[in-house]
């Protein structure tokens, strides 16, 4: 965008209505306009595509599961990347969430069943208070690793919109499936787990 | 509780909207929407040229210009200033002020042809101090002739009060 | 309840902003005084409502109302009050509200100052500012409601990100936002000029100060961010060409170019289209920068959580660019140049080169920032562009800019004759060459020699300018030199303030050169009372202690420093803070001893609990302190630029114009 207009003498007449464009300059100006508009369209187009990809890939986690580390209520530190080779069932929950209560038993039962099959269950406690969460764990007798998701870091990475949500991560560390509502039946859960079962 | 919330929010909203809508029912006549006339633009252009003249002189004094260049450019700028003043006169013909200013500018030009002015930006020019042996413009501090109604350098009107004081001196 | 009211206040503000935009455009076009008046009132009302909303959120933060999600996520009971206050801009929704608040404050100041002046363009200025406010209010109302509540009352919050619990980090965003947001004002004036076809030099004059103010805030904000990175992140550097750093740097570059090129327009009536385009680019870069940091489109350490605001930004950006271009093309005939550039050896051509360099810098930085994304889209592979690339491309451009800084002020307007050139350049060039010779003898390295010599050239130019100015002034006034220097600076604030800003940039340049080429570093594990030597200094680990404060445990090691001759230079205490809420994210407290020559910079990396040994990274950073001194000088110089000239009353012109208009009527 340069100042490519033709020049007149030292002192121009002033007035808002003057409109005498200089003819030879017109063509150049048009070309410049096209170039500028083209560049901007391309740039914005790239931004749109980039945003689209960002949203698709990361908004709801898919492909490689975002890595995270958390400390369970009993003090163990768990790093997702260390669990490669195992199927991971990642459940976001909170003690204040009613549907979570409904699915808690199902999850624990499945955990007891699948423990020996190289399947790991992780419970991330979303926006909660510790003593309520402890009471919840005791109430449902939950034994798989559960801990607070500090500053909702993992929740953001996985793009959850609420609790409960459950992600199923395969042994290769990619997200194989997710459930954005509560679990309703054992069969449903088993179906998802089968998809992440290590060979 | 819900009703109270709505009531408070509504009250605030009504207050704000009333404030914004107020001028629609009480039009103010004080607003001047026409100060972007060509006149303003011309005056600004003139001021800018006058500023350039000053700057040019300063550049010359600090050695950024050879004396031929200085005289040539200074001459050109002063011509521009005069031409702008003439245009101003055309736009606002009733203004005696402009005539005087134009005269002063022409006089100034005649005086400075071939001779770089050295007397601009004078001393500790405290513009508002009226007691001084000579007359200076209260705006820019440039010296002015005793009879001028307007400053030749910046175009500011020179008040009679100043003249009186100086005469008394 | 009060938080529901807060949300409804935002909705009302949005509605009024929309009305104000319509009133501004319609009233400005039709020259309808009541509508124009109403647009002023809309600016005030929107600002009051936004302030009220921000106060409600502050109230929530300060009184621990954890039922509000934002408070819950970004505060906690044990957080010191100061940080509770600053948590307003610690997260996405709050910082958007804060953005809007600052913009509203700017709009109110502009509206008040121009309530009775320049009314041809003011309705459009109001409208453009309100469009920007309205856009951010749209985000707050539809995408990121800061008052969203969870429906139950958690007993404690999640805590503020520990990295943000640092007083630099409290001021830095405020400065940065104030600079960033303020650049909307000159843009609004440019748009006002385009809309009202009032395209002379008036808007350029009006806008100079309104650009300088945000510009200096932005500059200071960027430097404070570097200071924070330097003190807090503990990697020994201050600038990493991170996308978010770039996002704040880009508008600074174009705004700097704009500040220079409007001088030529004022003096010579050229580059009119360029100036309008430059300030528009600055505004678009501000929006683009906010977009990149908010949408998660580019990976960065600074990015906020991903959210749905991205698409809003893109739509807004596209619409505003299209409107601007349409308007610009329509008004091109009114933006014709009045003059030509007479000669290459003139000040205007130096300014022009300076503008190309700034634009080049902005372009390469923009390219580097977005290239990883482009490459991913085109080839499927993310090719990252890192600091060395930026240094390689931008380093030479900065060097050329420095050179122009030394050359430009020595040239006269229009044309500089050979004889004058000789007179002007002899001393600075001689000084630079002399310095280069001496410096190369002691430290024979090419790039630092060139860089520092150019710095000397610039300093020589500045000194010569001041000396000759003082001489010229004394020739007229016979003042004593100090008084002459003072009144010279006072009466020609724009020029001499500018030189002081140049001096500040040179200081920063010197610090950068010192750091880039002469930094020494080592990684070392020390037992208690064991020493290590680096760059002439000897450092001895003398012990470790820990202390628990309200929300964290502070560990700090003590390292005694000895100079080359064995003299004691005191103790530095690098440390780590481990926060109760986020033990896996310890923050680093750098042990720092600053001096004009070099900084001793020690980072504590690890330790034995009994304090018997500890691991350190030690940097000796030459000349770094000049960067922060340069920052202070930069602010001072800008203040001199902004300060009203005692001889020439700023508002004389409009008043006179009014008087003449009365006579004419």
Gyration radius of chain B, rounded: 25 Å
Number of domains of chain B: 1
Q: What spatial form of chain A do the alpha-carbon principal axes imply? A: elongated
- Mean pLDDT score of chain B, rounded? 67
Number of strand segments of chain A: 8
CATH H-level superfamily title of the largest domain in chain A: Glutaredoxin
Could you please describe the fold and organization of this structure?
The complex is a heterotrimer of chains A (199), B (169) and C (665). With 199 residues, chain A is an alpha/beta fold. Chain A folds into 2 domains: 59 residues, no CATH class; 134 residues, 3-Layer(aba) Sandwich (Glutaredoxin). Chain A is built from 5 helices and 8 strands. A 6-stranded mixed sheet of chain A has the order 1-8-7-4-5-6, with helices on one face. In chain A, strands 2-3 form a two-stranded antiparallel sheet. In chain A, strand 5, helix 3 and strand 6 form a beta-alpha-beta unit. The termini of chain A are far apart. The N terminus of chain A is likely disordered. Chain B has one domain. In chain B, helix 2 runs antiparallel to helix 3 and helix 3 runs antiparallel to helix 4. Chain B starts with a helix and ends with a helix. In chain B, 37% of the residues are buried. Chain C has 665 residues and is an alpha+beta fold. Chain C has 4 domains: 165 residues, no CATH class; 228 residues, no CATH class; 136 residues, no CATH class; 103 residues. In chain C, strands 2, 3, 4, 5, 6 and 7 form a 6-stranded antiparallel sheet that branches. In chain C, strands 1-10-9-8 form a 4-stranded antiparallel sheet. The C terminus of chain C is likely disordered. Chain C is 64% helix and 11% strand. Chains in contact: A-B, A-C, B-C. At the A-C interface, helix 1 of A face helix 3, helix 11, helix 12 and helix 13 of C.
């Amino acid at each position: 965008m340069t100042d490519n207009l033709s020049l007149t003498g030292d002192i121009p007449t002033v007035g808002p209505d003057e409109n005498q464009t200089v003819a030879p300059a017109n063509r150049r100006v048009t070309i410049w306009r096209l170039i500028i508009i083209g560049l901007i369209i391309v740039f914005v187009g790239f931004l749109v595509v980039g945003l689209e990809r960002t949203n698709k890939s990361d908004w709801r986690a898919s492909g490689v599961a975002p890595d995270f580390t958390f400390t369970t209520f009993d003090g163990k530190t768990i790093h997702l990347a260390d669990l490669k080779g195992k199927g991971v069932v990642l459940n976001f929950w909170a003690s204040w969430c009613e549907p979570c209560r409904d699915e808690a038993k199902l999850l624990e039962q499945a955990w007891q069943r699948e423990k020996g099959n190289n399947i790991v269950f992780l419970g991330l406690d979303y926006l909660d208070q510790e003593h309520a969460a402890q009471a919840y764990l005791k109430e449902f007798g939950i034994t798989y690793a559960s801990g607070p998701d500090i500053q909702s870091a993992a929740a953001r990475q996985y793009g959850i919109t609420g609790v409960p949500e459950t992600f199923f991560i395969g042994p290769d560390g990619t997200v194989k499936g997710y459930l954005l509502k509560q679990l309703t039946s054992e069969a449903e859960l088993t179906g998802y787990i089968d998809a992440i079962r290590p060979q | 509780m819900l009703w109270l919330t709505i009531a408070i929010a509504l009250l605030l909203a009504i207050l704000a909207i009333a404030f914004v809508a107020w001028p629609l029912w009480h039009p103010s006549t004080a607003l001047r929407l026409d100060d972007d006339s060509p006149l303003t633009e011309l005056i600004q252009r003139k001021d800018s040229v006058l500023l350039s003249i000053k700057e040019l002189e300063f550049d010359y004094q600090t050695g950024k210009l050879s004396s031929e260049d200085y005289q040539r450019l200074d001459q050109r700028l002063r011509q521009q200033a005069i031409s702008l003043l003439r245009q101003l006169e055309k736009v606002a013909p009733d203004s005696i002020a402009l005539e005087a200013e134009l005269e002063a500018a022409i006089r100034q030009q005649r005086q400075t042809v071939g001779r770089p002015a050295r007397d601009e930006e004078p001393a500790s020019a405290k513009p508002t101090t009226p007691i001084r042996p000579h007359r200076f413009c209260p705006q820019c501090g440039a010296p002015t002739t005793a009879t001028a109604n307007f400053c030749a350098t910046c175009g500011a009107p020179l008040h009679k009060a100043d003249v009186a004081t100086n005469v008394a001196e | 309840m009060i938080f529901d009211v807060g949300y409804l206040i935002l909705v009302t503000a949005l509605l009024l902003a929309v009305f104000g935009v319509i009133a501004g455009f319609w009233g400005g076009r039709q020259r309808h005084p009541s509508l124009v008046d109403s647009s002023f009132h809309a600016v005030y009302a929107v600002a009051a409502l936004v302030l009220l909303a921000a106060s409600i959120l502050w109230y929530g933060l300060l009184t621990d109302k954890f039922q509000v999600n934002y408070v819950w996520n970004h505060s906690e009971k044990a957080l010191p009050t100061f940080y509770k206050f600053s948590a307003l801009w610690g997260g996405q929704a709050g910082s958007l509200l804060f953005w809007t608040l600052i913009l509203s404050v700017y709009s109110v100041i502009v509206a008040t100052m121009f309530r009775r002046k320049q009314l041809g363009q003011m309705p459009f200025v109001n409208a453009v500012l309100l469009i920007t406010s309205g856009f951010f209010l749209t985000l707050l109302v539809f995408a990121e409601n800061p008052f969203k509540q969870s429906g139950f009352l958690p007993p404690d919050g999640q805590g503020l990100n520990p990295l943000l619990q640092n007083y630099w980090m409290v001021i830095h965003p405020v400065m940065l936002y104030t600079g960033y947001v303020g650049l909307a004002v000159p843009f609004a004036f440019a748009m006002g000029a385009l809309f009202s076809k009032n395209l002379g030099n008036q808007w350029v004059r009006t806008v100079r100060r309104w650009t300088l103010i945000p510009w200096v805030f932005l500059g200071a904000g960027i430097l404070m961010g570097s200071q924070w990175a330097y003190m807090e992140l503990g990697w020994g550097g201050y600038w990493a060409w991170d996308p978010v750093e770039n996002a704040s740097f880009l508008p600074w570059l174009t705004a700097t170019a704009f500040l220079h090129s409007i001088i030529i327009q004022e003096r010579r009536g050229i580059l009119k289209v360029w100036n309008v385009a430059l300030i528009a680019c600055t505004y678009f870069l501000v929006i683009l920068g906010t977009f990149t940091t908010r949408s998660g489109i580019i990976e960065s350490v600074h990015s906020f959580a991903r959210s749905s605001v991205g698409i809003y930004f893109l739509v807004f950006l596209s619409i505003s660019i299209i409107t601007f271009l349409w308007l610009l093309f329509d008004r091109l005939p009114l933006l014709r140049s009045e003059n030509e550039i007479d000669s290459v050896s003139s000040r205007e051509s130096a300014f022009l080169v300076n503008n190309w360099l700034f634009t080049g810098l902005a372009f390469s930085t923009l390219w580097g920032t977005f290239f990883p994304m482009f490459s991913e889209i085109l080839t499927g592979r993310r090719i990252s562009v890192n600091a060395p690339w930026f240094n390689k491309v931008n380093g030479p451009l900065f060097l050329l800019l420095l050179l122009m800084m030394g050359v430009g002020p020595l040239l006269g307007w229009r044309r500089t004759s050979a004889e004058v050139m000789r007179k002007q350049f002899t001393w600075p060039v001689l000084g630079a060459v002399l310095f280069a010779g001496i410096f190369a003898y002691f430290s024979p390295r090419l790039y630092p020699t060139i860089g520092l010599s150019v710095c000397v050239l610039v300093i020589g130019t500045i000194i010569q300018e001041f000396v000759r100015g003082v001489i010229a002034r004394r020739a007229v006034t016979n003042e004593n030199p100090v008084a002459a220097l003072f009144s010279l600076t006072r009466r020609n604030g724009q020029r001499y303030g500018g030189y002081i800003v140049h001096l500040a940039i040179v200081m920063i340049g010197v610090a950068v050169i010192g750091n880039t080429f002469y930094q020494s570093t080592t990684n070392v594990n020390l037992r208690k009372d064991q020493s290590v030597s680096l760059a002439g200094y000897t450092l001895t680990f003398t012990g470790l202690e820990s202390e628990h404060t309200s929300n964290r445990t502070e560990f700090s090691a003590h390292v005694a420093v000895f100079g080359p001759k064995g003299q004691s230079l005191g103790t530095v205490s690098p440390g780590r803070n481990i926060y109760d809420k986020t033990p896996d994210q310890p923050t680093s407290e750098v042990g720092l001893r600053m001096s004009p020559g070099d900084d001793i910079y020690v980072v504590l990396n690890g330790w034995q609990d009994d304090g018997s040994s500890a691991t350190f990274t030690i940097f000796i950073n030459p000349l770094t302190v000049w960067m922060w001194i340069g920052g202070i000088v930069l602010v001072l110089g800008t203040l001199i630029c902004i300060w009203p000239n005692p001889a020439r009353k700023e508002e004389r012109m409009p008043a006179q114009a009014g008087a003449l208009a009365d006579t004419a009527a």
